[in-house]
Amino acid sequence: MTTGNRYFKAAAILLGAAALLALWYGIHAATGFMPRCLFRELTGWKCPGCGSQTALMALLRGDPAAAFMANPAIPFYILYLVAILQPFSPRLRDLLTTPRALYLLAAAILLWALGRNLLGL
User: Fold this and answer.
1) Among 5, 35, 57, 119, which residue's CB has the most CB atoms within a 10 Å radius?
2) Predicted model pTM
3) To 10 degrees, what angle do helices 3-31 and 52-61 make?
4) Please, are residues 47 and 39 in contact by the beta-carbon 8 Å criterion?
């Protein structure tokens, strides 16, 4: 992929993500609607992502403290997504998506889910 195509792809992803976040924020602001977590509804336990919607809304309002309180793992989720979606360092993306890295990520998410439910984190 040429450098120009890489920048175009990055800009398209950023604009698309910004448009979707603006639409989601507008719908929430107008109606107060947020989908409920199916895992929590069925089990009563918080999934690793529970609170992520509230955290993203808080970040969109410019309140990082409230975002962290809603789901303390949200900064790590965002950093990981940014790192694997950025087009400027394919080597970093390849490193973060190796089978070993993905197994470690899955283990960390599982430990976070257990910790937040069993230890009240």
Assistant:
1) 57
2) 0.71
3) 100
4) yes
Tokens encoding 90 = 């394919």
Cα gap 101→27, rounded to integer Å? 36
Give, in order, the Cα–Cα distances in Å from 31 to each of 13, 35, 94: 27, 12, 41
Cβ neighbours for 62, distance < 8 A, ≥ 6 positions apart: none
* Residue 67 to residue 114: CA distance in whole angstroms: 20
Task: Give the CA radius of gyration of the chain.
Answer: 17
Q: Is 30 exposed, middle or buried (0-12, 13-18, 19+ CB in 10 A)?
A: exposed
d(CA 101, CA 97): 6
Confirm if 52 and 62 have CB atoms less than 8 A apart: no
Q: pLDDT digit string (tens) for 20-74?
A: 888 888 888 888 888 888 999 999 999 888 888 889 889 888 899 999 999 998 8
Residues 6 or more apart whose CB falls under 8 angstroms from that of 53 comprise 34, 35
